[in-house]
Amino acid sequence: MNIPSKILENAVSEISRLPGIGKSTALRLALHLVKSNSSDIKDLVKSIESLHNNLKSCNICYNLSDSDICDICKSNLRDDSLICVVEDIRDIMAIENTSQFNGLYHVLNGKISPIEGIGPSELTIQELIDRIKNKKIKEIIFALSATMEGDTTSYYIYKKISNLNIKFSTIARGVSIGDNLEYTDEITLARSILKRVPYEQFSKD
Amino acid sequence: MNIPSKILENAVSEISRLPGIGKSTALRLALHLVKSNSSDIKDLVKSIESLHNNLKSCNICYNLSDSDICDICKSNLRDDSLICVVEDIRDIMAIENTSQFNGLYHVLNGKISPIEGIGPSELTIQELIDRIKNKKIKEIIFALSATMEGDTTSYYIYKKISNLNIKFSTIARGVSIGDNLEYTDEITLARSILKRVPYEQFSKD
Fold it and tell me: For residue A35, what is the nearest residue in chain B, using CA coordinates?
């Protein structure tokens, strides 16, 4: 692309380093910014800088937070005997959107993945174990990806703390609600048959 | 969406004001920025601020430029008796990419559009006329959108300066190269038949 200005070219190359933003989109955004007024630019820049300078990680659960302890950990309306273990803060947002969980969270900041060179020590697993030992926890719910890495991670954590008197559970896996069986992938369908649920238990919900 | 932090929420709302960026993409970008290192953030912020503070509009053709006169207007390798009239700086980039035009440009910064409240005085039409009167120009090439607004704009400019001894032309319209006729829209096809070109002239190219 022939970009008529070094300043614009530099901005396009910076913006296109963001995930999912190609050169064309970056150019469109840059040209939009050129035409934006000063206060809009200032607001955008300030909010970006603030992300880096002011945003904190909750000292307890590693959720993103404006203060040292996040709103969920601070709240006394939540059941602090339940901990839902997730990979990423996005998973917290997804689960919070369902309004079906009233416990606390623990963000691992990833999952064990030897291929990507991520071992247990890169994650907040030790912090989870310390947290469990120091507080009365009734149940640990694993809400990790339904992948080899997710399963490895939950198994690793389970093995580390299975001696404690805690209930362990993992979120249900099977055919997505609303899915037609003919479009469900084979592995999910096969597992759904193997792990079938007694109808009495199913129809109670 | 349940965003766990005011700072993050503010960044998401600022980023999602950019064109073509929805809330989900904005959240993805914001979370990426949270994890980016300080120098990357600084580079991004600097390049955005620079777009607004340092980027100039060429005093002659209104192309974007790092200095008062853009590289195209400055160049003495270009034919300064040809002016290609375009709506937007993106059109200059597109035409420059073809490497088929060696003249100068004039950016109107839009097209006449009564519906959007854009009249001739909002565009750089008077500046184009002044430019033509002050310099020896042989040909004006209209490279505007093939729409009602584009046609109105070129006709308005033509009427204003048709008394000058200048050749006027407009870029060719017809079936796109590589297109199958069955997929070409009716209006383009109808116009292509009406405005057919003598074969001898066509096969010369």
Answer: B52
What is the ipTM for the molecules in this complex?
Answer: 0.77
Tell me the DSSP string of A88-142. SHHHHHHHHHHT---EEEEE-SS--BGGGTB-GGGTTHHHHHHHHHHS---EEEE
Whole-number average pLDDT of chain A: 89
Q: Where in chain B is the domain with CATH 1.10.8.420?
A: 6-53
B64-65/B56-57 β-pairing? antiparallel
Q: Which of A5, A33, A90 sits opposite B65 (nearest CB)?
A: A5
Contact across the interface for A4 and B71, Cβ inside 8 Å: yes
- Residue ranges matching CATH 3.40.1360.10 in chain B: 80-171
A59 contacts: CB under 8 Å, gap ≥ 6: A68, A69
Give the rounded distance of the alpha carbon of A142 from its chain centre: 12
Query: What is the CATH architecture of A70-171?
Result: 3-Layer(aba) Sandwich (3.40)
CATH topology of domain B6-53: Helicase, Ruva Protein; domain 3 (1.10.8)
For residue B65, give how far its alpha carbon lies from the nearest alpha carbon of chain A (Å).
5
Domain at A6-54, CATH homologous superfamily: RecR Domain 1 (1.10.8.420)
Supply the mean pLDDT for chain B.
89
87-106 in A: which are within 8 Å (CB) of B?
89-90, 92-93, 96-97
User: Stretch A194-202: mean pLDDT, rounded?
Assistant: 77
Best of B28, B47, B101 to disrupt the A interface (most A CBs within 10 Å) is: B47
CATH code, B80-171: 3.40.1360.10
Domain boundaries for CATH 1.10.8.420 within chain A: 6-54
Residue A119's alpha-carbon distances to A111, A125, A154, A193, B25, in angstroms, are 8, 10, 13, 33, 29
Q: What is the value of pTM for the model shown? A: 0.75
Residue range B174-194, pLDDT digits in tens: 888 888 888 888 888 888 888
